[in-house]
Design goal:
Protein name: Cadmium resistance transcriptional regulatory protein CadC
CATH superfamily of one domain: Winged helix-like DNA-binding domain superfamily/Winged helix DNA-binding domain
Number of helices: 6
Largest sheet: 3 strands, antiparallel
Strand content: 5-15%
Function: Metal-binding repressor for the cad operon. Involved in resistance to heavy metals, such as cadmium, bismuth, zinc or lead. Metal binding causes the repressor to dissociate from the DNA.
Number of strands: 3
Helix content: 55-70%
Radius of gyration: 20 Å
GO molecular function: DNA binding; DNA-binding transcription factor activity; metal ion binding
Subunit structure: Homodimer.
Organism: Listeria innocua serovar 6a (strain ATCC BAA-680 / CLIP 11262)
């Protein structure tokens, strides 16, 4: 016998309707897209590096994540569209920095979750 699933089908309509009502007001595609972009290891490495270094040029970031400048630029563009990072040009160099420091809270939450729950 599988203890992970119900042995009979029993729908609790009041609970289901409340959950569906709340879900209707929840922007699932945007939140899912946000986590999808952050689910890439290289993007997490980029965010982690920028949290600790304030700003880095694309060449430095490429070296840190051991990727080409083109691949790194693609990752940075995704993070920029998401509003996590921003950039400024200084001569011939483009520097990236964390735009919204709340991303640090999210990363800390992820680390704490892993340590407490997944350990």
């Amino acid at each position: 016998m599988n203890n992970e699933i119900c042995e009979i089908t029993c729908i609790h309509e009041d609970k289901v309707n409340r959950a569906k009502s709340k879900l209707a007001n929840f922007d699932t595609p945007s939140v899912s897209g946000f986590f999808k972009i952050l689910s890439d290891e290289n993007r997490l490495k980029i965010v982690h590096a920028l949290v600790h270094e304030d700003e880095l040029c694309v060449c430095d970031i490429a070296n840190i994540i051991d990727a080409s400048v083109a691949t790194t630029s693609h990752h940075l563009n995704s993070l920029k569209k998401l509003g996590v990072v921003d950039s400024h040009k200084d001569g011939k160099l483009v520097y990236y920095f964390i735009k919204n420091i709340k991303i640090l809270n999210l990363m800390e939450l992820g680390v704490n979750f892993k340590e407490e729950v997944l350990a």
